[in-house]
Write a structure and sequence with these properties.
heterodimer; A: about 325 residues; alpha/beta; Rossmann fold; 2 domains; 7-stranded mixed beta sheet; 13 helices; 14 strands; B: about 325 residues; two-stranded antiparallel ribbon; 7 strands; globular
């Protein structure tokens, strides 16, 4: 089977179409959805499936999630566009108190098959309320699954898996890469939730990361290769469930782990990655663990300040050189 | 759904439901005060006419969302008494396997989409159920029970607006018991009659005496008929009163004993209904006594079932976080 170059957003659109063609109970709701969404990820869906199935919602985030919960408990599969991830905070009550708990607190009577699509990450001067990465909050809540693809091919396969999944999935799409083109496999394909991928093998250090930080890590790995440093890049793809086996195997091979993400370091998901490595790698004697994330400040607007808070490829290079003393 | 006039059979059915809710709440309150029930409970005693009247006009497939004060809604919608009693004990045979407790009683098989510990949590869920029903061309109605306190949540506005935009088959039933937790509605809510807000959402509003079972039934019939015929949502203010405090054990310093006593003696929905049906010659005093005896016996049996039922095995504590087993 071949592949085509397309944007991350177009790749998600293909996944949506496969899911909607397959199951008439898949519906899409969100603000500005019939206009294609903020990054065109929903473009054309309303023409193909009609406004009863692709529903423009008022700017009512809590309703969007609560309605998805009620409709999914009644038999639909709801993909809800939350626009920017910060807007999910207006629905955090519904996400944390309803969606994530519905199945458990009602004794397994129902599943809540909803996908909350949200754009996160820095894109360059989007300001403090449109640049955050909030996966750490979602990962801390039992009952939610969380995915964060780094490229169009995974975006397509993970979205397909997320929509097929019977439980609530937070699907995080990084703003910086939503419009970027990459090779995407033709046809229908599924990337199972909970399967990490070693996107660049290496022997000196394991960079365990996800979302757009994977792309920064690949740039950094290429630069460091010229210095003779061999960097392995592990793309988690899915944070909950987490593929601990792949992380631990990589850590055991290289002996040095750098957990990296755009979100805040303090209390962030990187700490969880490193704790898992510490709990799961049998021989701890030579193991070294490090993390790199944003400093604990809101994301600033100014082009000189934003990179002072949120790390990128150059910061990864510097950190890896510091860790390996090269 | 039975729309016949109030004959003996129907009057006894309605009375039995109200008496069952009252007897259940009275028993639960007593057991809780003896320290025999875990957690805490909110009693709906005094509000029985609303749950009973509304649910008597719904089909099994119609959905309801409920509140933290939800036992009556569950009973009126048809939950098994053994299952709700065992749930309040945290037993494995409970409606939710003991996972939910008093505030999360649910039975999706009868369209009871859950009591909810978050005030205002039911609005969007009911809208979602109504949206799904319309999308799947099912002629179902969703009823959202909520209190006067919940009417001040943003979720009220978001849900009623959307229900208005899409003329969804939802009935929003405000159980206006005049107190939001410990605080009088008059101190927190700009209008006494919540239904006047309907105009802001382009839906119908109605306001009735929620302690008058027959008025509840009439209002429900109007709203359900509107919903089923594509006429859209209705917001009904049903005035009622909470016999107990916000929760069982509440010191109730925010209202006078005289106010409570007056409501109990003059506004009790069960007394008003029995007085009406006896005066109308539909049911005799001795038949009412028979209903009460049978209800007490049923509550006794449910309590015995719940007490004898085993607790969940701690080894099952991680089950159903996700749909796949054991994860």
């Amino acid at each position: 089977m071949g592949s085509r170059r397309m944007t991350f957003g177009q790749a998600t659109l293909e996944a949506m179409q496969y899911a909607m063609d397959e199951d008439p109970n898949v519906v899409v709701i969100g603000e500005d959805i019939s206009w294609g969404g903020n990054f065109g990820q929903f473009r054309g869906l309303v023409d193909r499936y009609g406004p009863e199935r692709v529903v423009d919602m008022p700017i009512s985030e809590s309703l969007i999630v609560a309605m998805a919960v009620g409709a999914s408990a009644a038999g639909l599969k709801v993909v809800a566009s939350m626009s920017f991830v910060e807007f999910t905070l207006g629905a955090m009550d519904e996400i944390v108190n309803q969606a994530s708990k519905f199945r458990y607190m009602f004794g397994g009577q129902v599943s809540v098959p909803i996908v909350l699509r949200a754009s996160d990450g820095v894109r360059g001067s989007s300001g403090a309320q449109h640049s955050s990465s909030l996966e750490g909050m979602f990962c801390n809540v039992p009952g939610l699954k969380v995915v964060a693809p780094s490229n169009g091919d995974d975006a397509k396969g993970l979205l397909r898996a997320a929509i097929a999944d019977p439980d609530p999935v937070v699907y995080l799409e990084h703003k910086q890469i939503t419009g970027q083109r990459s090779e995407v496999a033709d046809g229908d394909h599924v990337v199972p939730l909970g399967s990490a991928k070693i996107v660049r093998p290496g022997s000196d250090i394991s960079v365990v990361t996800y979302s757009n930080m994977v792309n920064h890590a690949l740039v950094a790995a290429e630069e460091l290769a010229s210095l003779g440093v061999s960097v392995e890049v592990v793309d988690l793809r899915s944070l909950v469930p987490l593929d601990v086996a792949t992380i631990a195997a990589s850590a055991a091979r290289t002996g040095v782990v750098l957990a990296a993400h755009e979100s805040w370091t303090f209390g962030g998901f990187g700490a969880e990655i490193l704790a898992q490595v510490r709990e799961c790698v049998p021989d701890q004697s030579q193991l070294r663990t490090h993390r790199l994330g944003a400093r604990s400040a809101p994301i600033p607007f100014s082009p000189t300040l934003e990179p002072a808070i949120v790390p990128g490829a150059a910061d990864l290079v510097a950190e890896i050189r510091r860790i390996l003393a090269v | 759904m039975d729309s016949s006039p109030l004959d003996r059979t129907r009057a006894i059915d309605l009375l039995r439901t109200m008496e069952t809710i009252r007897a259940f709440e009275t028993r639960i309150e007593a057991l809780f005060k003896q320290g025999l029930l875990p957690g805490f409970v909110h009693s709906c005693a005094g509000q029985e006419a609303i749950a009973t009247g509304v649910c008597s006009r719904l089909d099994r497939a119609d959905c309801i969302t409920s509140t933290h004060r939800g036992h009556g809604h569950a009973i009126a919608k048809g939950i098994e008494l053994d299952a709700i009693f065992a749930e309040l004990y945290g037993k494995a045979a409970g409606a939710c396997g003991g996972r939910g407790g008093s505030m999360h009683v649910a039975d999706f098989s009868i369209g009871m989409l859950g009591a909810n510990g978050i005030v205002g949590g039911g609005f969007g869920i009911a809208v979602g159920a109504a949206f799904a029903a319309r999308y799947q061309r099912r002629e179902q109605v969703a009823v959202c029970f909520f209190g006067d306190g919940a009417a001040n949540k943003g979720t009220f506005h978001e849900a009623l607006n959307f229900a208005g935009v899409h003329a969804l088959p939802v009935v929003f039933v405000c159980e206006n018991n005049r107190y939001a937790q410990f605080t009088a509605a008059s101190r927190t809510t700009a209008v006494a009659d919540i239904s006047v807000r309907a105009a802001a959402y382009g839906i119908e509003g109605d306001s009735i005496d929620g302690n008058d079972l027959l008025a509840v039934i009439d209002a429900t019939d109007r709203a359900v008929a509107r919903a089923r015929s594509g006429g859209g949502a209705t917001l009904i203010n049903m005035a009622t009163y909470r016999h107990s405090g916000h929760y069982v054990g509440d010191a109730e310093q925010y209202r006078s004993r005289e106010e409570v006593a007056a409501s109990r003696s003059e506004q009790d929905p069960i007394q008003r209904f029995t007085a009406h049906i006896v005066a109308a010659g539909v049911v005799t005093e001795s038949e009412i006594a028979d209903v009460r005896l049978a209800v007490e016996a049923r509550i006794d049996a449910a309590q015995q079932f719940a007490e004898a039922a085993p607790f969940p095995d701690p080894a099952t504590a991680m089950r159903d976080v996700f749909t796949e087993a054991g994860s």
